[in-house]
Amino acid sequence: MFKKRVLGVLGLGEGRSIMSAALKSELWELGAVCDLDRGLCERRCAEFGVDRYTTDYGELLADPEIDTIGVYTPDQLHADHAMRALRAGKDVICTKPLAVGLDRARELLDCQRETGRALFVGQSSRFFEPLIRQRADFERGAHGELVSAETSYVTDARWFLAKNWSRAAGFSWMYNFLIHAVDLAAWYLPEIEEVYGAGAASANSRAYGLSVPDALSFILKDAAGRFAVVRGSYATPTLSGGSEQSISCTLRGTGGVSSAGYPKLQYLSSFPGEGTPERMELFRDRHPYYFRFEGESHHAGEYQNYIEYFARRLDAGETPKPDLREGIRTIAVMEALSESLSTGKSVRVSEVLARREIEL
Ligand SMILES: NC(=O)c1ccc[n+]([C@@H]2O[C@H](COP(=O)([O-])OP(=O)(O)OC[C@H]3O[C@@H](n4cnc5c(N)ncnc54)[C@H](O)[C@@H]3O)[C@@H](O)[C@H]2O)c1
């Protein structure tokens, strides 16, 4: 008999989106939620008409009804919180980034092997409508042979620096923001081997005491010679309110080209190889599904898509992707990108993994 999965949510800032997702989904039940901030727990419970919360993560993990933990705490805490959930016998949905470097990667791999539970990385951008459409076209071969990709995440995110952890050790625009664009590149080029790039820490970032680069451009190459151009900009004004997409992914292949992005929820494609002229699809009717709260800062529809994908894959006995191995590979690419910025040289991902003695 079909049994709904039961979710416990840790961290109730962005965790608000997955609460909404679970409550609206026919595949999920919301078991309980947890945040150190009792007032926030009370506000979220009141907003959604639920009443089970705790400020103690241990108590959430001890709840036998909960089978899956959604981790939505600050980036620097994900590895710890995910491992605690695995050890408590729970499956894990961990928001991006899986971790802020490879320091805990081997421990994570060991922990998952010992516990045998699933770990899925919530790379939410894969689950927006235009990007789902683009992936379907890619998988049916409409692009012909993929030659190159361009991915970007461009947004003026200075508002993010109001969060206390955004200026603490381990925070970077790369791990918190650019990872969306890096993950999209890695989705299409899963064997990225060599990276090279440039980055600048603008005076706007430095004004907040941050010395990490906020303007970033990279080239990521795979062994077959295909490449992706990945761009990000986080502390200077952008055009994203009007003519520029915030997240975008363009694929260029021998048989056609496509470009998907949001927040405009737009998909452009042209597949002359199939006789398909240029086409523009807008998903305006889906706007209320994706953007459920005030403004467009939270986008719960992506989360509903990915928790439902997660549940269906597990029910079918398959591994939801990106899984831990794929997540760690993307973090290895991120480390290679950082190294390229600091050395000014191109860096091989296989060498980063070998140096860390990580086998995937
Ligand atoms: N599109 C996306 O996938 C997306 C979007 C936004 C944020 N995120 C991710 O979500 C995570 C949270 O970001 P945010 O903007 O909500 O930050 P936030 O600071 O608003 O929320 C984090 C919450 O975690 C709580 N917390 C911290 N340590 C805890 C602990 N030990 N036990 C219980 N609660 C604890 C804090 O009290 C806080 O309420 C980040 O990793 C961020 O990268 C993902």
How would you sum up this structure, described in words?
With 360 residues, this protein is α/β, with parallel strands linked by helices. Helices cover 35% and strands 25% of the residues. The chain has twelve helices and 15 strands. The protein has helices spanning 15-24, 38-48, 57-61, 78-87, 105-115, 129-139, 173-188, 203-206, 287-290, 300-315, 324-343, 349-355, and strands at 5-10, 28-34, 53-54, 68-71, 91-95, 119-122, 146-154, 192-200, 215-222, 227-233, 247-253, 256-262, 266-271, 276-282, 347-348. The strands form two sheets. The protein has a nine-stranded mixed beta sheet. A six-stranded parallel beta sheet has the order 3-2-1-4-5-6, with helices on both faces. Helix 4 (78-87) packs parallel to helix 5 (105-115) and helix 7 crosses helix 11. The radius of gyration is 20 Å and the shape is globular. The two termini are 36 Å apart. 47% of the residues are buried. The model has no long low-confidence stretch (mean pLDDT 95). Nicotinamide-adenine-dinucleotide binds next to loops.
Mean pLDDT: 95
Number of helices: 12
Give me the side-by-side strand order of the main sheet: 14-13-12-11-7-10-9-8-15
Rg over CA atoms: 20 Å
Morphology: globular
> How widely separated are the two ends?
36 Å
Q: Structural class per helix/strand content?
A: alpha/beta
Total DSSP E strands? 15
* SSE string, helices as H and strands as E: EHEHEHEHEHEHEHEHEEEEEEHHHEH
What ligand species are in this complex? Answer: nicotinamide-adenine-dinucleotide
**What percent of the residues sit in helical stretches (DSSP H or I)?**
25-40%
Unreliable segments (pLDDT under 50, ≥5 consecutive)?
Answer: none
Q: Give the biggest sheet.
A: 9 strands, mixed
> Beta-strand level of the residues, as a percent range?
25-35%
